[in-house]
Each structure stands twice: as C-alpha cells, then as structure tokens.
Amino acid sequence: MAKATSTKSKKRTTEATSSEADATELLAPAEAPHVDDDSGARYSWALLAGRVAPATEEDLQLFSLRRPGDLLRLDGREVSSEKILSDGRVWLGLIVDFADLGNEAIARVFGFRLGLLRSFHTELSRLRMLVARREANRDGGDAQTLAVGLANDFAVALRPRYAQRRAALIAAASNDTSALGRVLALPPAEVADDKLPGAVRDLVALISAFIDRGDAVGSRTRIRGFSPADAEALGRLADGLEDAIELRDRPDGMGPVEQRTLDTQDGVCLALMEQLFDLFEGASGATAVPKLVPNATRGWFNRRAKLAREAALKYSGQ
Description:
The chain is 63% helix and 0% strand. By secondary structure, the protein is mainly α.
C-alpha cells in the first residue's frame, strides 16, 4: 500500500554492553528552555533537543536497525514522514519524562536502555532534516520554517553542553598555564549560532588531546567524565547544527532528496517505534510506565498486529 499524502523528505540509541553506556548523559542541564511549538503541544522539538543527549556511535550500532534497506524502505512507504514525526515526538517526550524518574523506574521496562532513546531521537532528527530538504526542493514547500526550527533545536541542544564541557575543561587544566590558556581561548558559550559548530570542534580537539595526556591534566580530564564517545557525540550535534544553518540560509543549496532515501529513513524510525511500543506495552501494568499510543501511525500498527496474529495462527497449525 503506497502512501496517500507524502512525496517524502539529513542525519541518522535497547540493551547496552556495559554500565558505562547508560552512564552517558541522558538529560541536559535544568536550564534547557521549555519552548512550546505553535500547536501548543506538550512536547516541542526544541524542548526535547535540550533534554536528550546525542546518540554515540556505539548507541547507533547497538540500537538502530541493521535490517536490509529494502525491507526498511518497504515499511517506510506505508506511512508518511509527517505521521511518524507526529507520534515520534509525543512518544519521545513521554519516554524522556519516564527516564527522568531514574533507574528504579527504568528497570520496570525490561530490555529498555537509554541508548535506545538516544538513538530514537537521533533518527527522528535525521528524518526531520530530510523532510526539510524535500520541502526546499518542492514548489510551495515550507523549508524555511522547518530549517529555522531545526537550527534552533540543534543550538538549544548544543549550547549548554558546550558551556558545561568548556567549564569542566577549564577546571581540568587549571594547574597548567599552557593548557589553561588553550581552553580559555575557546569562544564563550554566548557565541553566535553560526560560530558554535566551529567552537565545538575546537573544544572536541582539545578534549581529545587532553584525554591522551599522561600528566595531571590528562588525569583531571578523564576523572571529570570526558571520553572519546562523548566528544564524538558532541561533534555529531555540531554537524547537525551546521547542516541546519546551511539549509536555513541556502534552502536550495543541499540538493534534492531521493524518495528511496526518505522511505528508508521512515522505515528506520518505524522499526525503532516498534521496539519501543513492544517494550513499553509489555510493562504497561507497572507503576509510572507510560502508554505509547499510535495515533497518526495507528493504521500501520494495526496492520502490523494483524500480520502478527496471522503468523501466530500459522505457527500453531490452526
């Protein structure tokens, strides 16, 4: 069944292999602003961007689907990107609120890990970028509004993390005049949005250099929680902001999006929604576990349930 309404439209975290994976930051600092979208929805993309940490490469390898691309694309053709993003945003908000209750609550949903949540957010962000690029190459598209929103969301997510890590690196380098001077040369957190990706990359380069040092600066850097995985995830956020700014400023400069690319990304997001739905539905009777309701994607989930029932009957020989 082909999509009825979408013609379609850049960027791509359940059980981790170690406790370190879930020790990775989930939520941003409390000062991340609550910015409601135009519809007055409870969860805005800007709010969620400030609360969910970026997925690490390990997160994506563990939790994003590696099913053959043709199968993902076939699933993605069944549901419009807009419907996936509509339910995905609400589910993301519900799960972030749930995860914020702490490890005792998280343990009620067997198999759920924060890396899955981080991957889900990253894949939804990639889908949003693809949709914005599609609109930029379609007559009457709303690319400018979408690109402005994306750039704002990436900046909201990136700026407080940059500020925190710059401050922590200053503390780590405080006993070494040369190292301290290098950190202090980084732009302040108030740097303009278009300069923020470059500032983050300079910060990431310093983090990487300091982590490898065998002296007190290296020890003080590592003990403060800096790691290659964190630096890599921060760099991915900077890439996202840079791309969103490019799309905002040059809506037609990133080229068209192939329909198959958009369909595949829709399939990736649907696969993650499947995982989350099954995990949370299985724990639906536990205290404080949210119910993930497919609203915009109801038809797709109903078809999925029907196929599962048919498979079960076939397996049982009835």
